[in-house]
């Protein structure tokens, strides 16, 4: 499997704006906009192939034609149609000349006549080259989501490497294009509008309890097909030593408490159990460390975070020796790839990913990738 890794600088909304295409003028310098890819720029301009545009701008782009930076200025090729336009002009020019020199005109006409015929040839040529670069499937993930996805992570992150490998197992030789959106909002927009076939990583709420879910989670259940889990997030919870909820084992034991979670972390699992309850409070901070600091200050009763966040938060806040676990909020939350159910190619890809993941678990490849990614090696 060959990977085309493209990092799109997706603005939350500008990535889908229709004005981007009209901003480009053939034969003039073009400034890369948010959401652009080199192939899209070449296609819009009709100015040669993806490869030709890259070769012309290699000094600006660098070694990887799929990593382009917003604000860089590209030199544009004139479109084939523009180059071909002057060719018909010489054809009428020789035709008035037959009158002054009737005997020599046949040779001039013979020379001019074939000229327009080779001119269209360059247009089919890019078409014959481009299919070799066209991806079989379009994946999208988002940046800043270690260890699962990120532009600077080995292999694009744990989720990226697992799913790209799984798809290659099911479809050997397939070309997979992985776009790394700049944030989760841009990821949501691009996937929702079917700019991509498969998105990851996504949580999967309990779709059997719709009445407890947020609008976003209900839409996720209704509109998307889910792959089998490819990894699980371990959730942990802590309270101060001696707290009334220390050792609490059920949701009823902690209903009515003040539960803290980082702002960017999901809450659907709490919603499903109707926590923290009408007499309780969900406190959301910028980081896990701030949650632990709030716990130490008596501002919250429980901190509920991922195991990875817990390690960092406990260390940075300095409360590691003052807390105890709350089993009621210890759980695993599975991660999945998703595809819009109205996208047949995406739904087919989900089935292929499931086959590939099953094969990787059977032969140990899944374990090897996960171990290496989590160890940072």
Automatic annotation (TrEMBL):
Residues 1-23 form the signal peptide. Residues 87-97 have a biased composition (Pro residues). InterPro entries: LysM, LysM_dom_sf. Gene3D superfamilies: LysM domain, Periplasmic binding protein-like II. Residues 84-109 are annotated as: Disordered. Keywords: Signal. Residues 98-107 have a biased composition (Acidic residues). It holds the Pfam family LysM. Residues 28-76 form the LysM domain. This is LysM domain-containing protein. It comes from Pontivivens insulae.
């Amino acid at each position: 499997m060959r990977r085309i890794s493209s990092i799109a600088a997706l603005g939350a909304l500008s990535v889908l704006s229709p004005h981007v295409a009209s901003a480009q003028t053939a034969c003039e310098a073009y400034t890369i906009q948010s959401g652009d890819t080199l192939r899209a720029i070449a296609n819009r301009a009709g100015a040669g192939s993806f490869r030709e545009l890259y070769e012309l701008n290699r000094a600006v782009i660098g070694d990887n034609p799929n990593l382009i930076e917003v604000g860089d200025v590209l030199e544009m090729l004139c479109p084939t149609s523009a180059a071909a336009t002057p060719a018909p002009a010489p054809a009428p020019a020789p035709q008035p000349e037959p009158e002054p020199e009737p005997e020599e005109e046949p040779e001039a006409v013979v020379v001019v006549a074939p000229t327009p015929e080779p001119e269209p040839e360059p247009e089919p040529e890019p078409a014959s080259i481009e299919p070799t670069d066209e991806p079989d499937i379009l994946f999208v993930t988002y940046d800043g989501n270690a260890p699962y996805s990120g532009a600077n992570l080995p292999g694009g992150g744990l989720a990226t490497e697992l799913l790209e490998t799984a798809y290659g197992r099911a479809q050997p030789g397939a070309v997979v294009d992985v776009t790394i959106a700049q944030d989760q909002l841009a990821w949501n927009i691009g996937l929702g509008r079917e700019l991509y076939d498969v998105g990851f990583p996504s949580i999967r709420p309990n779709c059997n309890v719709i009445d407890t879910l947020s609008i976003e989670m209900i839409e996720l259940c209704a509109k998307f097909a889910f792959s089998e889990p490819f990894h699980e997030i371990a959730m942990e919870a802590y309270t101060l030593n001696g707290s009334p909820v220390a050792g609490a084992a059920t949701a009823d034991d902690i209903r009515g408490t003040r539960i803290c979670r980082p702002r960017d972390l999901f809450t659907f699992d709490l919603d499903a159990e109707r926590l923290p309850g009408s007499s309780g409070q969900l406190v959301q901070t910028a980081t896990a460390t701030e949650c632990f600091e709030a716990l130490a200050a008596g501002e919250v009763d429980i901190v509920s975070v991922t195991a990875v966040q817990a390690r960092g938060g406990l260390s940075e806040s300095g409360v590691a020796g003052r807390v105890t676990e709350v089993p009621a909020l210890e759980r695993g939350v599975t991660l999945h790839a998703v595809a819009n159910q109205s996208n047949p190619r995406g739904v087919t890809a989900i089935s292929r990913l499931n086959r590939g993941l099953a094969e990787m678990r059977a032969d140990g490849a899944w374990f090897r990738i996960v171990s290496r990614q989590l160890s940072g090696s």
